[in-house]
């Protein structure tokens, strides 16, 4: 059975738009299923801007690119560089929380 609503994704805002790149950074996300959808949630983090390989286990030390939370190791971010990350949530029976990128 297909859900008629898409799941929602949320990223808890950081305390500041600036972070210390020499400290560990914890990014907490969450997903909420669409109405009536009981399928397990699937998560996918994407880097839209900035130089960060989400599959590099020396840089991602907790969570993963497919979990709701992401923990970035100290000194993994480049000082002065701007980063934009996106969390997409989907289920096997509903489309993703965001339209696909073209």
Describe, in plain words, how this protein is organized in 3D:
By secondary structure, the chain is mainly beta. Helix content is 0%, strand content 34%. The chain has strands spanning 8-11, 25-32, 42-49, 60-63, 69-72, 84-90. A hairpin with a 5-residue loop joins strand 4 (60-63) and strand 5.
Q: Topology of this protein?
A:
Layout: E1 8-11, E2 25-32, E3 42-49, E4 60-63, E5 69-72, E6 84-90
Antiparallel strand pairs: 1-2, 2-5, 3-6, 4-5
Features:
single chain; mainly beta; four-stranded antiparallel beta sheet; two-stranded antiparallel sheet; 6 strands
Report the mean per-residue pLDDT as an integer.
Answer: 88
Distance between the termini: 28 Å
Encode the helix/strand succession as letters: EEEEEE
Question: Which oligomeric state applies?
Answer: single chain
Low-confidence stretches: none
| Secondary structure category | mainly beta
How would you sum up the global shape? Answer: elongated
Number of strands: 6
Helix content: under 10%
The helix tally amounts to 0
Main β-sheet description: 4 strands, antiparallel
Strands in their spatial order, largest beta sheet: 1-2-5-4
Radius of gyration: 15 Å
**Beta-strand percentage?**
25-35%
């Amino acid at each position: 059975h297909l859900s008629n609503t898409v799941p929602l994704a949320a990223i808890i805002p950081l305390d500041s738009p600036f972070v210390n790149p020499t400290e560990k950074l914890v990014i907490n996300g969450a997903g909420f299923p669409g109405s009536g959808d009981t399928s397990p949630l699937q998560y996918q983090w994407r880097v839209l801007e900035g130089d960060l390989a989400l599959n590099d286990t020396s840089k991602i030390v907790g969570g993963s690119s497919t979990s709701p939370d992401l923990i970035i190791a100290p000194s993994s971010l480049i000082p002065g560089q701007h980063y934009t990350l996106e969390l997409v949530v989907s289920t096997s029976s509903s489309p993703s929380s965001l339209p696909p990128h073209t």
